[in-house]
C-alpha cells in the first residue's frame, strides 16, 4: 500500500508543480517578453501582475515539494 500512496503523492506534487510552471510561463514571463517588443514597454500594472504570477508559481512549487515530504518509506 505504501507504493500506491507514494505514487499518488508524486502525481499530486507533479500536478501542482505543473500548474505553477504554467502560471509562471503564461502570466509572468510571456507578457513581459511581449511588452518588450511593443512601443511602450512594460507598464506598472503588467509588472505587478507578473510579480504576482512569479510569487504564485513559487508558492505552488513550494507546496508541491512539501507534499513530497509526506512520502512513506
TrEMBL record:
The chain crosses the membrane at residues 12-34, 46-68. Keywords: Membrane, Transmembrane, Transmembrane helix. It comes from the Bacteria. This is Uncharacterized protein. It comes from Phyllobacterium zundukense. The lineage of its organism: Bacteria, Pseudomonadati, Pseudomonadota, Alphaproteobacteria, Hyphomicrobiales.
